[in-house]
Amino acid sequence: MPEGVAAVVTEMQTRLDALPAGSGLREFLGTYQRTTTAVGKAILDGRFEDGDWVEEWDVVFARLYLDAYDAHVGSGLVPRPWRIAFEAPADLPALRQVLLGINAHVNYDLPQALLRVISDADFADPAVLAKRQRDHEAIDGVLASRVAAEDDQLTVSGGKSLLDRALQPLNRVSSKRFLREARQKVWHNTRELQAARLTGQAAYDVRLGELEVLSAARVADLLAPGQVLLRLAVAGFGVVLPPPA
Predict the structure, then answer these.
(1) Domain residue spans in the chain?
(2) DSSP per residue over the chain, as a string?
(3) What gap in Å lies between CA 53 and CA 110, rounded to an integer?
(4) Organism's domain of life (predicted)?
């Protein structure tokens, strides 16, 4: 496994080891650790055009989650999407705990992570930017390969209701579609944040604040009663920054 990814996986294990067995925080953290391991393997297998860049991106992306997690555990300042996810009732089904974390991390953290590893010069170079976008999209293949395994993991752990299990084949297809949809929206939001970054820090902060509000609202929506994947099939997974005011 690449050194940077391996270090992140170890950090995640340290936090897992410190959590009590019944903590709702374990569900997303465990899922994320397994997914990060899969990304590390994909890098070694040469599944990306620029494996070094993907490793840097993966570490930066994970760090945003770990920073939010540490702030929550240490009673620090936590971004709103993560605060809602972290403060969800511990007895929520495991599937919903995982979806809360995925939603906060993809919708709010991922555009920020991409901006941190795509420079202004990269954005100005169509060939480099296209390569970055292709590697961003290639992550879908890695994540999609984990959908069935993670679905089975939730079933074995008792984290799914009878209805969830009955809908399992549909859920797996829907999850893959959500991944594609979210990636497209994330790329749009990354471009919007980049335009703001070129304008200046104040403009960027405003747009990031808008993304925080939109992402928090989507996480909160997942806490509403009902079959969450069916609701996502109607409402969609990602969020979209509107044109700047």
Answers:
(1) 3-235
(2) --HHHHHHHHHHHHHHHHS-TT-THHHHHHHHHHHHHHHHHHHHTT-SS-HHHHHHHHHHHHHHHHHHHHHHHTT----HHHHHHHTS-TTS-HHHHHHHHHHHIIIIIHHHHHHHHS-HHHHH-HHHHHHHHHHHHHHHHHHHHHHHHHHHHHHHTT-S-HHHHHTHHHHHHHHHHHHHHHHHHHHHHHHHHHHHHHH-HHHHHHHHHHHHHHHHHHHHHTTSSS-HHHHHHHH-S---PPPP-
(3) 15
(4) Bacteria
Distance of CA 182 to the CA centre of its chain: 9
Contact 114, 185 (CB under 8 A): no
Q: How does DSSP assign 28-89, residue by residue?
A: HHHHHHHHHHHHHHHHHTT-SS-HHHHHHHHHHHHHHHHHHHHHHHTT----HHHHHHHTS-
pLDDT digits (tens, 9 = 90+) for 57-113: 999 999 999 999 999 999 899 999 999 999 999 888 888 888 899 889 999 999 999
Q: Show the tokens assigned to 160.
A: 């799914």
